[in-house]
Each structure stands twice: as structure tokens, then as C-alpha cells.
């Protein structure tokens, strides 16, 4: 299988339960909820995505002809003096589970990496992933109903994207992440109040945007 990667870079995880942890971000090209092109946003299933995932022209991006090639490229991004911390790769997108398969998972494990995935949950994850973060989107059928972390962008106006729908699913951590649009301050306050009223939920902030890092 050839893997299409938009970009690959070393940074700190900015969101959710792993916030602040050093990681290689492996952004797969393509998504099943939006083409990534502005002219299609109005008709997309997910209309608020703020991520560039079209093509393979980003830093570290390209076509990788095998799982071994992909794992080697990920390994090259990890600092050589990082032996005192377990290497960690975050597979994201777009929608990474359109491409992330068991061959790639096994190859990155052989390279010494703990593997996390950030998925919209519409595709069941293959076995072997160490950390599964699901970010549900309204109007998209949720197939991956178990994992480590559920991170809901909030608010989403549609009834099927309200937090109550997800609170009984098989996740360890439940996060609300304020929608980053023109009403970001109001969205943040709304998320704060919801978390205070429903303590199972925790607030996730996009700290990488605050810090100006990738």
C-alpha cells in the first residue's frame, strides 16, 4: 500500500489528555467528511474543520511506498537524544483510518513508537493502536464507540452531537473542546459551564494555537 501524507513534524500535543507530550504528528491526506476544498465546505458533513489535509505537499509530506518507508520517516523526526522518553506518534488527518492499517501500525511499533490516532470515529480502528481519540461529528455515523478519549468539538448545533449522546460510551476520558470560530469566547464559556454542570466532562483547549506551535 502507498501512504499519502500531507505533513509530518515533531511538536507537542496541544489538546486533550496527552496535552504537552512530545510527539511526531503524522497527518494523512484525505477525509471522508469533507473534500478539504472551500468550495465544498457548505455541503460537507463536517463544515467547521480548520485543518489543511489536501495533497502531499506539506513539510515532511509525500507518498510512501511501504509501511517500512513510512515508519522510517517517522523515526527520523524523533530526536536522537530522546531515549529517556518513549517515542510517540499521533496519526491524524483528515481521517487517518482511511489509510492507517495493521502493516503501518506494526512497522511503527517495530520502530519503537507508541501509536495514537485522532479519528472522527466513522471507521472502526484496526487492532494494535495504543491510544484512540475519537472526535464525533454531527450527521456522521459513529462506528468506533470505545477508546481512550472522546473529544467533542462544542457546541455543535445538531441534536445528535450533544454531549449527553456520548457520555455512556466506552471511553476513559471525555473532553469538550470549544469550537474555534467567530464565537470562540462564547463557545469557551459555554463549554466551561457544561463541564462545571457535568463533571464527567473536562475542558480541552487548543494550547498549540495559544503557543504558536504546529
Notes on the structure:
With 214 residues, the protein is an alpha/beta fold. It has a single domain, classed as Aldolase class I (TIM Barrel). The protein is 18% helix and 26% strand. The protein is built from 4 helices and 9 strands; from the N terminus they run βββαβαββββαβα. It has helices spanning 67-77, 102-110, 184-197, 207-211, and strands at 3-12, 22-28, 62-64, 88-92, 114-119, 131-134, 146-154, 170-178, 201-203. A 9-stranded mixed beta sheet has the order 3-1-2-4-5-6-7-8-9. Strand 4, helix 2 (102-110) and strand 5 form a beta-alpha-beta unit. Helix 1 (67-77) crosses helix 2. The longest helix has 14 residues, at 184-197. The protein is globular and about 45 Å long. The two termini are 28 Å apart. The model has no long low-confidence stretch (mean pLDDT 96).
Brief synopsis:
By secondary structure, the chain is of the alpha/beta class. It has 4 helices and 9 strands, in the order βββαβαββββαβα.
Low-confidence stretches: none
At the first level of CATH, the class is Alpha Beta
Classify the fold: give the CATH topology. TIM Barrel
Order of helices and strands, N to C? EEEHEHEEEEHEH
Could you estimate the helical fraction of the residues in percent?
10-25%
Radius of gyration: 17 Å
In terms of DSSP E residues, the strand content is 25-35%
Computed structural class:
alpha/beta
CATH superfamily: Aldolase class I
| CA distance, first residue to last residue | 28 Å
The gross shape turns out to be globular
Number of domains: 1
- Count of extended strands: 9
In the CATH classification, which architecture applies? Answer: Alpha-Beta Barrel
How confident overall, as mean pLDDT? 96
Order the strands across the largest sheet as they lie in space.
Answer: 3-1-2-4-5-6-7-8-9
- SS field, number of helical segments: 4
Major sheet details: 9 strands, mixed
Amino acid at each position: 500500500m502507498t501512504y499519502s501524507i500531507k505533513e509530518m513534524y515533531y511538536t507537542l500535543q496541544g489538546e486533550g489528555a496527552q496535552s504537552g507530550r512530545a510527539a511526531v504528528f503524522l497527518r494523512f491526506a484525505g477525509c471522508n467528511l469533507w473534500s478539504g476544498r472551500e468550495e465544498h465546505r457548505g455541503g460537507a458533513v463536517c463544515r467547521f474543520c480548520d485543518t489543511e489535509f489536501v495533497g502531499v505537499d506539506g513539510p515532511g509530506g509525500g507518498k510512501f511506498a511501504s509501511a517500512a518507508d513510512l515508519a522510517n520517516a517517522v523515526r527520523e523526526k524523533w530526536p536522537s537524544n530522546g531515549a529517556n522518553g518513549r517515542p510517540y506518534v499521533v496519526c491524524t488527518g483528515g481521517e487517518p483510518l482511511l489509510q492507517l492499517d495493521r502493516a503501518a501500525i506494526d512497522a511503527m511499533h517495530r520502530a519503537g513508537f507508541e501509536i495514537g490516532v485522532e479519528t472522527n470515529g466513522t471507521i472502526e480502528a484496526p487492532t494494535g493502536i495504543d491510544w484512540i481519540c475519537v472526535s464525533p461529528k454531527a450527521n456522521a455515523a459513529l462506528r468506533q464507540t470505545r477508546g481512550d478519549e472522546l473529544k467533542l468539538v462544542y457546541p455543535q448545533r445538531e441534536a445528535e452531537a450533544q454531549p449527553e449522546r456520548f457520555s455512556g460510551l466506552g471511553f476513559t476520558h471525555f473532553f469538550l473542546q470549544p469550537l474555534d470560530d467567530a464565537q470562540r469566547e462564547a463557545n469557551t464559556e459555554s463549554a466551561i459551564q457544561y463541564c462545571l454542570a457535568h463533571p464527567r466532562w473536562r475542558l480541552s483547549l487548543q494550547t498549540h494555537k495559544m503557543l504558536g506551535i504546529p
